[in-house]
Amino acid sequence: MLNKLYRFLSKPYMVIIVMIIAPILSIADRNYGYFFGLFIALFLLWKSGWEWAKFGFGQKISLNTVFMGLLLAVFIFIVVDICIQPFIEIYFGQVDLSSLEDIRGDFASLLPMLFIVWTFVAFGEEFLFSGYYMKHLAEFMGDTNKTWFASAIILSVYFGISHNYQGTSGMIAVGLASTLFFFTFYKYRTNLALLVFAHGFYDTIGLTLIYLNQDRIFYNWALNMISN
């Protein structure tokens, strides 16, 4: 039974079907679509004999990978969160971060949130959206540089829309940040670990600023710049 299911889910076009079903499930609860896709991807990984390379983990993790991930996270944070997002929020409204309000000034709440972020966001989202969706979609369309490029664009929009619970500004900002992440995977398509570390460090920076109640500093700076 499981082997038949694996053969069925392994068909190249199935990634598209999963990508269609996931957001439909998210209408009821945004976590349903995420865990549905993650379950499919993990099932395929398990039945493949844990062939991590099929999902972009084709290189050993090294200190250089960790360091590059940190640099990438800082770069994306500066470009998107400091230089672009504040102006997006001025015109489209503030990003809805109400789900993270509990960590403000509460270190006991910050620690488990960091664990969740590194596990289900940094690893989980990169494994699902980059390693499964983007990689398998690119391979389904022909596995060329052009199809990888197209897949990166498609997933940037797809990932941004999946954050609709953060409002219009959240979708735009997440879409822009994810574009940089997905195009990094386009370039380093056998080193998904780089994206995992970059995503983890990126979100850690954001969570730390919320914990310190300094997450609006760049928005206020942009607002003052426009006002003057």
Automatic annotation (TrEMBL):
Q: What is this protein called?
A: CPBP family intramembrane glutamic endopeptidase
Q: Which organism is it from?
A: Winogradskyella aquimaris
- Under the GO molecular function aspect, what terms does this record hold? hydrolase activity
**Which EC class is the enzyme in?**
hydrolase
Q: Which residues cross the membrane?
A: 12-28, 34-53, 65-88, 108-133, 145-161, 167-185, 192-212
What InterPro entries does this protein map onto? Rce1/LyrA-like_dom
* EC code(s) of this entry: 3.4.-.-
Q: Which keywords does this Swiss-Prot/TrEMBL entry list?
A: Hydrolase, Membrane, Transmembrane, Transmembrane helix
- Domain named CAAX prenyl protease 2/Lysostaphin resistance protein A-like is located at 109-204
Q: Give the domain of life.
A: Bacteria
